[in-house]
Amino acid sequence: MLSFERYRTEIVTQSELLASAIADRDLSAPVPSCPGWTVNQLVRHLGGGQRWAAEVVRTRASAPPSDAHFRELSGYVDEDPAELASWLVEGADELADALREAGPDAQMWAPLPVDRPALFFARRFTHETVVHRADGTLPLGVEFTVSTDVGLDTLAEWMELEALPIMFEFKPEKRELLAPGRTIHLHATDAPAEWVVDLTGELIVCREGHEKCSVAMRGPLVDLLLVLYGRRDVSAVEVLGDAELLDYWLKRVTFG
Question: Which residues are in the MDMPI C-terminal domain (predicted)?
Fold first, then answer.
């Protein structure tokens, strides 16, 4: 996990990188990883989500405010790229400022049972912004990269949230993943990181380490991140072992 201050900084940094990428582009390009959205609408979703989180943090909300403004996006077409880029960064600044004023231990509503919801929102929206930056830049032909520590933490949070028992309440069909002999090894070839996803028990267990598994997926950190988040096809990485199990798992883990 990164520091609270680093998360605050990264929310703005990642938003600035996306803003720079879209500032002089045609934003009507479709976003394959978010079907039905254009880059214009993707940016509106991200910026609206950041403002929504800022409201939760700033008001110490006891219940979630409406999120309709960043879910219904059909009206956002043909916006000026430079103006939209500035609007995006303003929302990131607003969230970072709200988090600074609240501090990491402030209490408020959160969508999951967490001890430190302000820290949760800081971390979650760092990674939300990282992944949506990929959504927004890849259709424009802009290379997507991320620093190793941020990329590792983005994957680590994915693992932690996917393994939460409460996720079975949101998606009961995920229990179909659990069966004897189902283990998955993930290996970043350009970073000191390996994980095991253990589906053999009554719960999903994700742990760091190197173990012999039913199937292994290995490749550069960015490719692993994008494959896990459903932003890149599994052909971007090397698969060793039970490819059908890996495909079955990837189709049923859709967090993020």
Answer: 177-247
